[in-house]
Amino acid sequence: MANQIATGPKLLEYVREFSLREDDILRDLRQLTAELPHGEAMQVMPEEGQLLAFLIASAGVVDVLELGTFTGYSTLCMARALPPHGRLITCDITDRWPEIGADHWRRAGVSGRIDLRIGAAADLLEKMLADGYSDRFGLVFIDADKANYPRYYELALRLVRPGGMVVVDNTLFFGRVIDPLADDADTTGVREVNATIRDDRRVDVCMLPMADGITLVRRR
């Protein structure tokens, strides 16, 4: 059996030449984000944004929940994949970074589909549950602080509809998940959620060795 291909810069360039469909608006936002401190490391790869859009369009999703907006690149990718009546709720702890993306959302003509909510993610999710959002979303994308990943996952499973998908980003976490010396809260949180998903008989699962690790979870 073939092993996983190591994707170096030249092979990644090839992939982008033959697969990536990133227009000027997305490219402008990605380049602007890369100029911020730690911006390039924190934003999703364009291939991941395209994957999220592909999943949404393929499954006919109309309601999306995102945890961790940052500058809104993934937000824009997903909002564009929604039908005109679709809605995307995106949550961040501050409006400082999402404001960068807001202009690009408007340029792309999808700002009306996007509902930005500011606050601690767990509190926002708990409020959604109290407001009757259980079993609501076709897709939930988790890309917020890693220490709280286990809590976000459990809340997400209550918010996603049966048959819907939870996408968890950074599940390989720069390779720290297999480093025995890495015991910080973020790495511990990622390891814990990975173990929970592996053993969770409520869901189907596929972990992809792509970007920084992307785990696809389908609620049964």
Automatic annotation (TrEMBL):
Signal peptide start-end: none
Single biological process term from Gene Ontology: methylation
Keywords: Methyltransferase, S-adenosyl-L-methionine, Transferase
GO molecular function term, any single one: methyltransferase activity
Pfam families (UniProt xref): Methyltransf_3
InterPro entries associated with the record: Cation-dep_OMT (IPR050362), SAM-dependent_MTases_sf (IPR029063), SAM_O-MeTrfase (IPR002935)
Domain of life: Bacteria
Enzyme class: transferase
The keyword Transcription regulation is annotated on this UniProt entry: no
TM ranges: none
Protein's UniProt keywords contain Transferase: yes
EC number(s) reported in the record: 2.1.1.-
Protein name as catalogued: O-methyltransferase
Organism for this UniProt entry: Streptomyces mutomycini
Lineage of source species: Bacteria, Bacillati, Actinomycetota, Actinomycetes, Kitasatosporales
